[in-house]
Design a protein that fits this description.
The complex is a heterodimer of chains A (59) and B (238).
Chain A (H helix, E strand, L loop, with lengths): L1 H10 L17 H11 L3 E5 L3 E2 L2 E2 L3
Antiparallel strand pairs in A: 2-3
Chain B lengths: L1 H4 L3 E3 L7 H10 L11 E5 L21 H13 L16 H11 L2 E6 L3 H15 L8 E6 L3 H4 L10 E6 L6 E7 L6 H12 L6 H10 L13 H8 L2
Parallel strand pairs in B: 3-4
Antiparallel strand pairs in B: 3-5, 5-6
Classes of the chains: A alpha+beta (59), B alpha+beta (238).
């Protein structure tokens, strides 16, 4: 459960209070791979659709 | 987990918003029927060509718990010697998607308006420096615009400014400009930080958000068809 909650925190919107730390996401694969190669950093890829039940504004 | 992720390039492409990206995502993971699912997770080497974890819908399909995932992130980043270089400004594909992504996260959208390539590079570098600072890390999304037509109708537009901080509405259909800055703005990071605070939005629960959206007849048309069976069925129920 903790695992799912931590992932949810990273993927979803802040609730009443914004978390102190957030993941800074690239949203373009091209940009991400270019920076990964330049910086020699591995890539954490997690795609998501910005719609829930067809309604936008929610992962 | 979030601290460990700082040593990685974290990328969250919007599923079904680019045919090219969908093809790449499908290469790593697809559902039983071979179609692209709503979410895809995998850890990759720095070339982006080699998977260094099992792929799935999410990390729970590759790791038994959060501790195992965090340990894998630490071990994975230690396996590659980091090179010193500046990160680029991470930008969303277009303004429409930018508003939706920002709304989904409850965060600000920063729109940079500049058609001239050299000037755009200069502004982008200045904003990137702020965006990757400890204080502003992950607190906004960014989009580049050639011209300001999508901003002109919004409250708070000032034609001579180049950097606009928008507060999206909760469904990401429109936004309100909370601050606007010149290309050569002094103390940009501090000013952006203050604007990001004003632009954050409080999100309702998933259930409430979807219920209100459906009641108001709000829907999202993705660039390519939604192929995840469950997600597509949910959308058709509108």
């Amino acid at each position: 459960m903790l695992f799912t909650a931590a992932l949810a925190l990273a993927l979803q919107a802040p609730a009443a209070e914004a978390p102190k730390q957030r993941i800074a996401w690239y949203t373009s694969l091209d940009q991400a791979v270019a920076d990964a190669e330049r910086l020699n950093r591995p890539i954490l890829l997690q795609s998501a659709a910005p719609q829930c039940g067809g309604v936008p504004g929610m992962w | 987990m979030i601290a460990a992720s700082r040593e990685w390039i974290c990328v969250r492409p919007a599923t079904y918003e680019s045919a090219e990206e969908a093809k790449l995502l499908s290469k790593w993971f697809s559902g039983r029927d071979g179609d692209l699912e709503n979410t895809t997770f995998v850890l990759l080497d720095p070339s982006g060509n080699k998977a260094i974890s099992r792929a799935g819908r999410g990390p729970e399909m590759a790791f038994s718990n959060a501790g195992a995932f965090t340990a894998a992130l630490k071990k994975g980043s230690a396996a590659y010697e980091a090179k010193k270089a500046e990160r680029v400004l991470p930008t969303v594909l277009d303004f429409r998607l930018g508003l939706n992504v920002a709304a989904s996260d409850g965060l600000a959208l920063v729109a940079i308006v500049e058609a001239d390539q050299n000037a755009r590079t200069r502004i982008s570098k200045a904003v990137a420096k702020a965006a990757w600072s400890e204080e502003l890390h992950g607190l906004a999304h960014y989009v580049m615009l050639d011209e300001a037509s999508v901003l002109e109708k919004l409250e708070g537009f000032e034609a001579e400014k180049k950097i606009y901080v928008l507060q999206p509405d909760t469904f990401g259909r429109t936004g309100k400009i909370v601050s606007a800055f010149a290309a050569s703005e002094k103390k940009l990071a501090t000013k952006l930080g203050a604007a990001f605070g004003l632009a954050q939005i409080k999100k309702a629960s998933h259930r409430q958000h979807v219920r209100e959206g459906k009641r108001a007849g709000i829907s999202w048309k993705s660039k390519i068809p939604v192929s995840d069976g469950a997600a597509a069925r949910a959308g058709r129920k509108l």
